[in-house]
Design a protein that fits this description.
about 35% helix; Nucleotidyltransferase, domain 5; two-stranded parallel sheet
Length: about 160
């Protein structure tokens, strides 16, 4: 969730399930409501188990609403370091908050580390998903915006004289 007025990002839910299919993940995420999900650029690559169908397309086929493009900064860059620094800056300034019941998120956060100056990309799925969401904030929309956009078209009554 993003409080646009205060520019604060809230992590309110997380979902982690090892060795599960797209169907299992999508079933849980659909239950969260009418949300739009950010996705990584490697989600456009085909996967072995689905004979070359990109992961993003598999999630779309399961009824999830994904952004029209992979997560990236406004300039198109996808730097992990820049994303981590964006979150760190928000944390330090009080503009990034995680609900305290999200134990899976915090367990990954505690394991997050560097080796020889580089981030070790292990056990970081929730943190990566958080990073994708943060770098995609420019696509965030309020429910009222979505409701206005998705409303039925109303035509004014035309009078013929």
């Amino acid at each position: 969730m993003h409080d646009r007025d205060a520019d604060v990002v809230y992590v309110t839910k997380c979902h982690r399930l090892k060795e599960a299919s797209v169907i299992e993940h999508a079933a849980t995420l659909r239950g969260w409501g009418d949300l739009t999900f950010a996705w990584p650029r490697d989600g456009a690559r085909g996967t072995l188990e689905n004979a070359g169908v990109p992961l993003a397309e598999q999630f779309r086929r399961q009824g999830l609403n994904l952004l029209h493009e992979p997560a990236a900064f406004a300039d198109g860059s996808v730097s992990v370091e820049a994303g981590v620094m964006e979150i760190l800056t928000r944390m330090e300034s009080g503009r990034f908050k995680v609900f305290d019941h999200l134990n899976d998120w915090f367990s990954e956060f505690r394991l997050y580390h560097r080796l020889e100056g580089k981030i070790v990309p292990e056990y970081d799925d929730l943190l990566s998903a958080t990073r994708y969401a943060v770098v995609s904030l420019r696509f965030a929309r309020t429910k009222s915006f979505k409701d206005k956009w998705n409303r039925p078209i109303e035509y004014p009554r035309a009078s013929i004289a």
